[in-house]
Amino acid sequence: MSRTTRATYRDGESQEKPATKRQKISIDIDDEDVNMDAYDPNKNAHLKGRRRFTADLSDIQEACVAGLVLSGLKLQKIGPGDDEGSVEVIIVKDSSEHVLAANLLISDTSEYPRSHSLFCYSPDGDLSAKLQRIVDEIAEEPPRPLGETIAELAASVARVVGSAAPKAVATHHEDTDESDGEGQSESEGYDPFEDYDDIGAAPVEPDSVMSKLQQDFVDIVATEYRPGFVRLGGNDFVVSISLPMITLANSIPPRALMAWDRRLLSCSQHLTLLIGGFHGLYPALENDASYTSSAQRLGVGLTFKVGLSQKYKPRMEQVQEVVRKHGLIIPDAEDELRIQAEIAAQKAKFFDYDGDNDEDEPMPDVVEEEVPEVEDPDRFDPFSLSSSLESLMDQSFLKIVQLRRKFGLGWAGAEFLNAEVEKSQRKEEDVLAVMENEIRQADRDERELARTTVLPHDPLMGLNSTEPFNLPLTAFCYLVRRLSLCTRYCIVCHNRLRFDYEALKPYVCDSKLCSYQYYSLNRGPSLEYEIIHNPKTVDLLVSLAFVSASDGAMEDPLPIGLGLRVPLPSSNAATYAQPPNTHPYNQQNIAPAVVPEAPKVLVPGPDGLCDFDDLTLSQMRACIAKLINTLPSVEDMKKHLERKVKAGKSKPKLKDIDPNILPAAWSILRWCVASCTAHIEAIDSGEELIKKLDPNWTQFRLTVGAPDAEAKFKEALDIAANEDRNVKTYPVIYAFHGSPLRNWHSIIRHGLWYKVVANGRAFGDGVYLAKDASTSMSYYAGAARSTWAKSLSGPTNCMALTEVVNRPQKFVSSDPHYVIKDTHWIMCRYLLVRGVGDAGVDASSNVDTKGKKAVNRQPKVPFVRLDPKHQTMVNGKVIEIPDPSFKVETLLSARKGDYVHEEPDEEDMAIFKLDLSKKATSSSSQPNHYDLDDEDDYRVSAPPSSSKPKGVKKPKDDWKHNAQYVAKTIENLMLPPFQSSPSASMAIQRELKSMLKEQETAPSLRELGWYMPPELIGDNLYQWIVEIHSLEKDLPLAKDMKAKGLNSIIFEIRFPPTFPNSPPFFRIITPRFLPFIHGGGGHVTGGGSICMDLLTSDGWLPSYSISAVLMQIRLALSNLEPKPARLSTDWNRPYGVDESLAGYKRAAMTHNWTLPPGLDRLVR
Predict the structure, then answer these.
(1) Per-residue pLDDT for 921 more than 70?
(2) Among 33, 142, 582, 668, whose Cα sits 20 to 30 Å from the Cα of 350?
(3) Is 918 a residue whose pLDDT tops 60?
(4) In contact, 544 and 781? CB cutoff 8 Å
(5) How far, in Å, CA of 1028 to CA of 1117, rounded?
């Protein structure tokens, strides 16, 4: 079959020429050819999102005005609809006879044209069944540009209405205007699937697909990674690639891994990448990293999940849980009761308030039970960088590979080019032409970096752009590379950071949008995890931030761009200035300069608050200190988060501690922890403490600087050892750095770097270190004027103990203080904090009460050998310093001992052992593969044991629908909603199709748990009847229903005109439940509506599907806590709409939930 493209703009001679997949269309107008780019997908390819949609719509409108005809049908109108992202299309015949009016709606134009959802409906009242099917199936098509969508719609309609062949054919613009033929037959006309004609070019067998998997798996093993194949059921599958973390620690410094997330080396586990979304196809990409035509037909969209697994691949159930698109988490009734009880207690305490319990939600005491968490070796757990790496892989990986293949770039150059294209919204070729030097330089810089940093193998290096590439291997190598370099890139936008210091932990750029996502959307380290597992460090970080703010020393980074709403500052908010300390040692002790600030006029909003970003610097500092003072102690936070709840219930949240605390205060707390780019860890073992140091100093491990700082420090040691024999014996010396407490908030973020000071320094420029701790303690570790009142440690003084290359003769000065200009010669090892609270672990804690040495199962920590010429002292006494590398080496040794190599499981071995020599080679025995609907040849076939033919009957003992019971129940059903909208109609239509399809393909209705009677799907889409059935037999509710002879619980679902942006209204029609006040449960209000946060404006998300919500309601009805759901004595009295609405409003008021707009109109 020849590939042709047909488009007619006026009556004329028919032309036909072979066409490429993407081409410009030429229009004949008055014998002159006019080039139109309306159908050229590449014309606006440099744009994306809303700008791309607007440009495409404008182009197709111009073509329509010029008389556009597709597949023999004329497009009478193409224009924007009433809603954003909507397009109205009217198709007529040559005789102007109306054929079809269709409204298209792009769900989110910011995702156009790559990942948007498309809805379609027709306002025509007398639409035939075939045309209705075409309209319905538009929503099932994969995302594509608007021109392609309309062309396919017109072609499909033309086949149904039997349109004649077009009289003129738009052809690729050539130098000649000669016609190659006339009067083409209809069968040779425009084919809407012209991009997919190659599907039938040659038969492709499942074995050839598996052979490609085998080839890629062998290459992955050769790179010392572990591939895995996880079948999800049917033809769908997920490919996994993993690497033991202990092996990764050979290329990424272990200290950096521990700083990024303590879980990375907490046990023997793997860094694992899951690649899903194949829809049974492999390979799904062309050699240029674009999706194959068959992949586009099936709507293939690759997704990437990054996490940790103890085994080389997680089990199938875990993978299914990870790759599913949507999930719902709801607060349990017990949590809601506890929160209400706490609020009532606070009101009673402060206002002597005695409120009545809600009719549906009484507030009994909650008895908490500890549920032991069972460790699952097959789990797949995310870590602190998972969400950032996943967004990078999902949004940019394939695009970066395409740029590499197209322009011959390296990873860094392709990332640079992609970032500039995204920012400028220009074509790739145009950006490369202007910035080629900078782009090529980025690749040269990375090659230079590879000399000192271990980077993974590059599978694309040296590979011709026309050769196929190994997708899983390429993706995993790119993932490991970005993990190794994560501190050099913004954790949110993934662009290169441009700071004058290097951080140990991943951080964000100076974009306010990135800051907002990093802090407000919890894209950084988990605050809750840090509070539970490292409370002393959190307490210290908050205390240092408070002191820095209250003493007027806090500077960048500030919590700007987080959308904080804070109280208006008091009129006497002043800038704090410390008296200058001009001692030559303490370059950090210079008082912050007082800069006059122009007063700002602040107008409070309706909430009585103002924007934090509008404050002056001094007001910001005062505001931060004030907000920190409103927070509870870290100990109270830890107790709250560790509160045990039963399985399946929502975890405690910090904001639930005290509702009177402003959200801005919790954001400041998250900022205090997440903005710290150093690694600080409290020392809990007496063996690891510095000996002969004042026990009033709490000791922390401290690491500051870039991840490769340790490697640079060791390199400096090696160079020094080659130049000085003494360095071989005594490689390092230790010295103290003291600074006022107000400066440490900045030091632990920026490091011990020094700024040029106008009045100079007595002993030269550099970092000043003291040989004796008493020097730092007495003069330079200055105390703060105030401390955070709720701090457990109450820090007043702070100093660091640093490790320095033992070359004093190379220092700027070595007497009376060390002054070191080369900061890579310095490594911070310990942070010493003195305070008014708990001093931490006593150095003598390894000795029992009788004076005998206590039994210590941990290996003894060796001490550092100090140079006798440069000993580290406290008040003239030499201290003993544990080897700072001992813990890391011990940890690595333990992980190596824990690691056990696993052999591939049966599923993976089947791929490795595949014998292609046994497959049939005779083409005559193969069926024809020219049917465009035959996609099985491109799919990974399911194993014979699990394959099921289509149309399998439901089990004989399956749940049966009782049509008579349902029909009798809904005899007096209220009229359906009277309001509608095009966008809601399309969304509901899509949900309806999804529900019916899921119901038809379910192996059994009993397992599905719900049923939608097809006979009750009426003319109005906005009112559904759904049954919930087959509850667990041992549930009290199930026993009640069996005793009453009830087959199901019948629900009515009413959709608002703002769906899916607003939630639908769910209510039970029958049977009637026992009210909560009388001992009932199941999240059912006294009026039969459902009491759930996810069905209100606060908890609803447009991505929620109705089937998933029904499953959550079914789980809620099955919940036995705090009380099980039961039937009322008048169970056969149906609920009324009015009482359902009243119960819903009552529950929402009790929980302070926001009611959806237009609710009263929806149910009346």
Answers:
(1) no
(2) 668
(3) no
(4) no
(5) 10
Q: In whole angstroms, what is the distance from residue 816 CA to residue 771 CA? A: 8
**C-alpha torsion 403→409→412→416, nearest 10:** -50
Residue (of 305, 149, 161, 176) closest to 238 by Cα position: 305
Q: Which one, of 784, 816, 818, lies nearest residue 801 by Cα?
A: 818
Chain centroid offset of residue 551 CA? 38
Q: Are 343 and 659 within 8 A, CB to CB?
A: yes
How far is it, in rounded angstroms, from Cα 1031 to Cα 329? 20
Q: Which long-range contacts does 987-991 make (Cβ < 8 Å, 24+ apart)? A: 987/119, 987/1059, 987/1060, 988/1021, 988/1022, 988/1055, 988/1059, 989/119, 989/121, 989/136, 989/139, 989/1021, 990/119, 990/139, 991/1105, 991/1106
The answer for residues whose C-beta is within 8 angstroms of residue 755's C-beta and 6 or more apart is: none
The answer for residues whose C-beta is within 8 angstroms of residue 82's C-beta and 6 or more apart is: 982
pLDDT at 5 over 50: no
- Reply yes or no on whether the pLDDT at 855 is more than 70: no
pLDDT confidence tier of residue 934, bands split at 50, 70 and 90? very low
Distance CA 630, CA 641 (A): 18
> What average pLDDT does this structure show over 495-503?
75
The residue assigned the tokens 């606070």 is 346
Edge-to-edge strands, sheet with 697-703: 679-682, 697-703, 826-835, 795-805, 732-738
CB 131 within 8 A of CB 995: no
Q: Dump pLDDT digits (tens) for 141-172.
A: 778 888 888 888 888 888 888 754 443 333 33
Residue 502 contacts residue 487 (beta carbons within 8 Å): yes
Q: What is the pLDDT of residues 285-318, one digit of tens each?
A: 999 999 988 888 777 889 999 999 999 999 888 8
User: Do 1055 and 984 touch, CB atoms closer than 8 A?
Assistant: yes
Say if CB 534 and CB 682 are below 8 A apart: yes
- The answer to whether the peptide bond before residue 557 is cis (omega within 30 degrees of 0) is yes
Position of tokens 């200058």?
580
Provide mean pLDDT across the span 911-931. Answer: 51
SS3 1073: strand
Distance between CA 517 and CA 781 in Å, rounded?
36
Residues written for the chain? 1164
Q: How confident is the model at residue 713 (pLDDT cuts 50, 70, 90)?
A: confident
Q: pTM score, two decimals?
A: 0.65
CA 32 to chain centre: 53
Q: What pLDDT digit, counting tens, does each position of 796-815 carry?
A: 888 889 999 998 888 888 88
Q: Which two tokens stand for residue 672?
A: 């205090």
Q: Within 10 Å of residue 499's Cβ, how many Cβ atoms? A: 12
Q: What is the pLDDT of residues 24-38, one digit of tens each?
A: 333 333 333 333 344
pLDDT at 1126: 92
Residues 818 and 693 sit within 8 Å (Cβ to Cβ): no
Sign of the dihedral through C-alpha 638, 644, 645, 649? positive
In sequence order, what DSSP letters do the residues of 512-539 get, joined into one string?
A: HHHHHHHHHTT-SS-HHHHHHH-HHHHH
The DSSP H or E segment spanning 65 is: helix 49-65
Q: Distance of alpha carbon 973 from its chain centroid, rounded? A: 43
Comparing 39-48, 246-255, 999-1008, the range with the smallest average pLDDT is 39-48
**Tokens at residue 658, please?**
């005290």
Task: Using pLDDT thresholds of 50, 70 and 90, give the confidence band for residue 257.
Answer: confident
CA 544 to CA 540: how far, in whole Å? 6
Going by C-beta distance under 8 Å and a sequence separation of 6 or more, which residues neighbour residue 55?
43, 44, 47
577: tokens are: 């200035």
Determine contact, residues 1023/1052, Cβ cutoff 8 Å.
yes
Q: How far apart are CA 482 and CA 480, in angstroms?
A: 6
